[in-house]
Amino acid sequence: MKAGGGVVFGVPRASAFPAVLFSHRRPAIRCYSSSSLPDHASFIKDVAAAKPPEHLNQLLRILQVRGEQIVSPGAKQGLIPLAVPLSKTNSGSVTALLRWPTAPTGMEMPVVEVREYGVWLLAKNVEQYIKRILVEEDVKNPQERNEELFSASADAGNNFYEKGDFAASGIASLESYLLKKVGLFPDILERKVKQHFDKGDHVSALVTGEFYTKKEHFPGFGRPFVFNAEVLLKVGRTAEAKDAARGALKSPWWTLGCKYQEVADIAQWDDEQIEYIKEKVTDEGRQEDLKKGKEPAQIALDEAAFLLDLASVEGTWDECVERVADCYRQAALDDIATFILHRD
Predict the structure, then answer these.
(1) Which of 138, 177, 238, 277 is the most exposed place for a label (fewest CB within 10 A)?
(2) CB-based contacts of 2: which residues, under 8 Å, 6+ apart?
(3) Is 98 in contact with 124 (CB distance < 8 Å)?
(4) Which of the four pLDDT bands, split at 50, 70 and 90, describes residue 37?
(5) What is residue 5's three-state secondary structure?
C-alpha cells in the first residue's frame, strides 16, 4: 500500500518543521565545567540559523544544577541531525533543542529528549520546561528539594515560578496544576489517561486521548496520534485504532515517541510503507515525481523527509547526514544544510 507523505503547514513530512540513544556506536559527547560553558545561543543563531530561546542560559544553569553535564551544541554524532544538544545525564540521556527545518514563523524551538528512533517532546519551549522543573522541585519534601534550582532560574531576574504556588492553588494533583498553569506536556497527558483507566473511567480516557491529538497542541509531532491509537486499542476499538495509527505515520516517524514498528503493527502494515519510501528516494522515484509536475525543490524536501524517516527505523542518523544536507541545498535551504552537516 502506498501511503503518501503527510503535509504539515503546507510542507512535507519530516522535512516539515516537520537511555538508549545511538545506533551502532556511542558518540563521544564533550562535557564542560561551569567555568567553560559552550555558547549555545551563538551556535543556534550562527550555525542553526534560528532565534535562540530567550531563557536558554537559565535552562542550561538549571540542567547543570540538576547534575547534568552541559555538552557542546555541535556534538551531534549518532544523534538525529536536527537536534542541538544541551546536556547529558549520568545515564546517557541527552536533552536538546529541536531545529525544525521549515518551521512556521514565530514557532519556538521545542525541548526534546533524544532517543534512538528520534525525539521525545519534553516541552514546547524553554520557558515551559523551566517552569515545569521548578514546580516539580517545589512539590518535593523540603529535605529533598534543591534550592539551587530556584536560584539558578532567577539569575537574570526572571520569576518563572513562586515557591508555594502549587500548595496555595488548591489544585488537587501535580498533573492538573501543570496542565492548567504551565502548559501541555505529552507525558502528563498520557499519565492523565492512565489515571482515568485506573479509575475505570474509559469515557474520560477517550476524551483526553482525543484532546491530545488536537492539531494546535503539538503541531508536527506524531506522538499524540500514536497514543490515541493505543487508547482506542485498549477499549477494543480496533478499526479506529488502525486508522489512528495510519494517520500517525503521516507525521515524521522520528516524532512518534516510539519505534516505527510499534505503530506499524497497530496500523496493520507490513513493510509496504518502508518499501514505498525506499522507492521514492531512488532516481526512478524522482523522475516519476518530475513527470507528475512536482517542483524540484518540493521533491528535494520530500526526499529529505523520507531519508530521515528511514534513518529513524534503525537509528542510522550519521549514514544519512550528507544526503539529507544535499536535499536541503537542492531546495535552496543552504543554512539548514550547513547545520545538518555541522559536527564538532
Answers:
(1) 238
(2) 272, 276
(3) no
(4) low
(5) coil
* pLDDT value of residue 158: 64
Strands 69-71 and 7-8: unpaired
pLDDT on residue 2: 35
Gap between the Cα atoms of 324 and 329, Å rounded: 9
Q: Which residue in the block uniquely carries the three cell numbers 503493527?
A: 265
Instruction: Please check whether residue 264 is in contact with residue 273, taking contact to mean a CB–CB distance below 8 angstroms.
Output: yes
> What DSSP letter does each residue of 62-101 carry, written as one string?
HHHHTTPEEE-TT--TTS-TTEEEEEE-TT--EEEEE--T
Cα–Cα distance measured from residue 113 to residue 128, given in angstroms and rounded to the nearest whole number: 15
Most confident of 13-17, 137-141, 253-257: 253-257
Cα of 13 vs its chain's centroid, Å: 14
> Could you give the CA distance from residue 302 to residue 296 in angstroms, rounded to a whole number?
10
Angle between helices 272-280 and 296-314 (to 10 degrees): 140
Between CA 140 and CA 150, with CA 145 as vertex, the angle to 5 degrees is: 115
For residue 155, the number of C-alpha atoms closer than 13 Å in the C-beta half-sphere is: 14
Distance CA 74, CA 47 (A): 9
Cβ–Cβ under 8 Å, residues 23 and 116:
yes
3-class DSSP state for residue 290?
helix
Q: For residue 168, give every residue at least 6 positions away whose Cβ sits within 8 Å of its Cβ, in sequence order, or none.
A: none
